What does this fold into?
Amino acid sequence: MKIAILGAAGDVGTRIMSEALARGHHVTGVVRTENQLNKLPAEASYRVADISDPRQLAQVVEGQDLLISAVRPPEGQEELLVTLTDVILESALAEQRVLLVGGAARLLIPGRNGETVLTAPDFLPATALEIAKACQAQYERCLAETRTAWTYFSPAAMLSPGERTGTFRLGSDTLVTDNDGASRISMEDFAVAMLNEAETPIHIQQALTVGY
It folds into this structure.
């Protein structure tokens, strides 16, 4: 499968690239600037492009089977996430699927009477509030998309570097928590879940979440 990974130089993007390459896919990492290329695996192809420009993105998506968006805007420009998502969904060709690394903002918190990660007043630190709002808006943009075959991936509440275990649980609209009530997933296992969906599409125009 030919896969283009947008935002390939980020923490999540690099792990998705490594997982896709390990499974034998032809991977093209897309980055904003040339100085990000040293973060990409040597065996990957790459493109330098401003994906906010539909003309540049059109050149990137041509010939790809699948697009994976792991883009995150710079701090202070979180609202750009929706703009970038819109361009990606609009630029995808009719036969292409789009998998998006989303946020946990939309997810219901178990036992909290309908409160979500975003709406619960004591759940998020202040530093995470703006990106959470942007992720909620990103999700709502996906819900409005009827042409492109998108899948929206919400991580657990805690997404951090760790081990690739290959063992996790999927959910839909509620945080996946362990026996201690913690909601977490390693970036490595998040990448495994995403590539599983890439290879065996189940959640077309749907959202899902993953956690231990």
